[in-house]
């Protein structure tokens, strides 16, 4: 009896046939590789089906950075598409931010993934869209606020690339850890508008290109990518010293070490927040200059770009009175105060000059 119990203890707790290869962080079960692949992929399939993420015949772009999450996403989605006959046309979409020694290398990975998974790849670049690479932006703005430029520009670049590919939806590799981190950051910033939508699995359904996050509940992609020997790029961005986000990430990792379920609990807490009906939410419109969605006259990318092009790179990010006045005026009226408006434009490319 005692012997039998020990033998069972050494077998996979799902199939009871093979030796366990890992302890699942999510459930703490000891399972074998084959059962891990099956439950990992099946959970993503269930999330896709329960949330009605796709319809047969849709064209879907996977936002592919070459990193672990988007590589696993491209791989798993193409497997599930075949296995369950979703009927999707899948594409890879990459944004080249122009970061030498980082994005050029990760794009090489995506180019290999294009061949490995048989998915057509489209690359859009900041240089073509905005006239600036991140290397050039960092030279004028330094390392402190560059992530603001990169985040704002990437968001639009993905939408513009998706429009060029004529896809119906864009999927990103944001995972449970990313989402828990964003919930926490929005609480810390008191950003009610973002908090209310940051846990949605699908956003922008009323905009040009809905986005979804099939990995919303997934946090074992490291193990999956490692076991499957997927070809991904694992270096951190050379310009990302975002200390605040870094602390939030470490805090969540510490919580996960003590109680793995904490990640899913933070996401559920975010989902359960209700916005008081008396809270005024921003009205959505379109940017006067480039036509992108915006709650102000000019979208954030156009304000940042105007600052770069006029040699006022802190416009829209700095908290100095001058920069706040300038960016508020630009956001609200589409015009700069006289002194700044008279500065010569250094580069005249409007934001996102690709068809949208
Ligand atoms: N340059 C890019 N091109 C295309 N998609 C991107 C790019 N950067 C980020 N994304 C998308 O946004 C998601 C989250 O971005 P994040 O910065 O966490 O990516 P990462 O850590 O570089 O890579 P990954 O999330 O793939 O491991 C990615 O999973 C990917 O879908």
From TrEMBL:
Location of the Cytoplasmic tRNA 2-thiolation protein 1 C-terminal domain: 285-315
Domain tRNA(Ile)-lysidine/2-thiocytidine synthase N-terminal: 60-236
Keywords: ATP-binding, Cytoplasm, Nucleotide-binding, RNA-binding, Transferase, tRNA processing, tRNA-binding
Any one Gene Ontology molecular-function term assigned to this protein's record: nucleotidyltransferase activity
Residues reported in the UniProt entry to bind ATP: 63-65, 69, 95, 173, 178
Database matches in Gene3D superfamilies: HUPs (3.40.50.620)
Keyword Phosphoprotein carried by entry: no
Cellular compartment(s): Cytoplasm
GO annotations of cellular component type: cytosolic tRNA wobble base thiouridylase complex; mitochondrion
Pfam families: ATP_bind_3, zn-ribbon_14
CDD domains: CTU1-like (cd01713)
Main localization of the protein described in the UniProt heading: cytoplasm
UniProt xrefs under SUPFAM superfamilies: Adenine nucleotide alpha hydrolases-like
Pathway: tRNA modification; 5-methoxycarbonylmethyl-2-thiouridine-tRNA biosynthesis
One GO-annotated biological process of the protein: protein urmylation
Family matches, as InterPro entries: CTU1-like_ATP-bd, CTU1_C, Ncs6/Tuc1/Ctu1, Rossmann-like_a/b/a_fold, TilS/TtcA_N, tRNA_thiolation_TtcA_Ctu1
Entry EC no(s): 2.7.7.-
Family membership: Belongs to the TtcA family. CTU1/NCS6/ATPBD3 subfamily.
HAMAP family xref list: CTU1 (MF_03053)
Role description: Plays a central role in 2-thiolation of mcm(5)S(2)U at tRNA wobble positions of tRNA(Lys), tRNA(Glu) and tRNA(Gln). Directly binds tRNAs and probably acts by catalyzing adenylation of tRNAs, an intermediate required for 2-thiolation. It is unclear whether it acts as a sulfurtransferase that transfers sulfur from thiocarboxylated URM1 onto the uridine of tRNAs at wobble position.
Protein name per the record: Cytoplasmic tRNA 2-thiolation protein 1
Organism this protein belongs to: Dendrobium nobile (Orchid)
């Amino acid at each position: 009896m005692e012997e039998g119990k020990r033998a069972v203890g050494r077998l996979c707790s799902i199939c009871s046939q093979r030796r366990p290869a890992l302890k699942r962080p999510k459930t703490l079960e000891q399972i074998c590789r084959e059962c891990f692949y099956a439950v990992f992929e099946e959970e993503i399939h269930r999330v896709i089906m329960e949330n009605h993420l796709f319809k047969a015949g849709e064209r879907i772009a996977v936002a592919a950075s070459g990193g672990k999450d988007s590589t696993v996403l491209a791989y798993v989605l193409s497997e599930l598409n075949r296995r369950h006959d979703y009927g999707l046309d899948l594409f890879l979409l990459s944004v080249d931010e122009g970061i030498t020694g980082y994005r050029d290398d990760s794009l090489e990975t995506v180019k290999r993934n294009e061949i490995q998974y048989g998915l057509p790849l489209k690359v859009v670049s900041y240089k073509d869209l905005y006239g600036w690479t991140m290397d050039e932006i960092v030279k004028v703005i330094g390392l402190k606020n560059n992530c603001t430029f990169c985040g704002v520009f990437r968001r639009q670049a993905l939408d513009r690339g998706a429009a060029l590919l004529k896809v119906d939806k864009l999927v990103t590799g944001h995972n449970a850890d990313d989402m828990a981190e964003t919930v926490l950051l929005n609480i810390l910033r008191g950003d009610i508008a973002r908090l209310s939508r940051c846990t949605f699995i699908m956003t922008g359904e009323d905009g040009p290109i809905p986005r979804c996050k099939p990995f919303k509940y997934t946090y074992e992609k490291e193990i999956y990518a490692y076991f499957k020997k997927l070809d991904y790029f694992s270096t951190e961005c050379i310009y990302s010293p975002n200390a605040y986000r870094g602390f939030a990430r470490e805090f969540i990792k510490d919580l996960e070490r003590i109680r793995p379920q904490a990640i899913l609990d933070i996401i559920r807490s975010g989902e359960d927040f209700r916005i008081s009906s008396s809270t005024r939410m921003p009205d959505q419109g379109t940017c006067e200059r480039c036509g992108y969605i915006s709650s102000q006259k000019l979208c954030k990318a156009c304000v940042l770009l105007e600052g770069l092009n006029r040699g006022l790179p802190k416009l829209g990010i700095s908290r100095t009175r001058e920069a706040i006045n300038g960016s508020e005026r630009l956001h609200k009226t589409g015009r700069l105060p006289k002194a700044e408006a008279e500065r010569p434009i250094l580069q005249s490319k409007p934001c996102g000059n690709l068809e949208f």
